[in-house]
């Protein structure tokens, strides 16, 4: 199981986003899942016009 959350940044440029936290159950850690999810999030953000 993975937990994530998103919220607008109050003092940020409109084309800047930030991944702040990612939670994974201990049973799925160490498999590279967080890295894969973070890279997917970066790719998606860029596709949406974020830097």
What does the model show?
Residues 1-51 form the N-acetyltransferase domain. It comes from Salmonella enterica subsp. houtenae serovar 45:g,z51:-. This protein is of the alpha+beta class. It has a domain at 23-51. It is built from one helix and two strands. The chain has one helix spanning 33-47, and strands spanning 2-4, 22-24. Strands 1-2 form a two-stranded antiparallel ribbon. It is elongated and about 35 Å long. 2% of the residues are buried.
Index terms:
N-acetyltransferase; GNAT_YJDJ; 51 residues; 1 helix; 29% helix; two-stranded antiparallel sheet; alpha+beta; elongated; Acyl_CoA_acyltransferase; acyltransferase activity, transferring groups other than amino-acyl groups
């Amino acid at each position: 199981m993975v937990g994530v959350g998103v919220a607008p940044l109050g003092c940020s440029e409109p084309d800047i986003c930030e991944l702040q936290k990612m939670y994974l159950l201990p049973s799925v850690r160490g498999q590279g899942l967080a890295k894969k999810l973070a890279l997917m999030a970066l790719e998606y953000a860029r596709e949406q016009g974020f830097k």
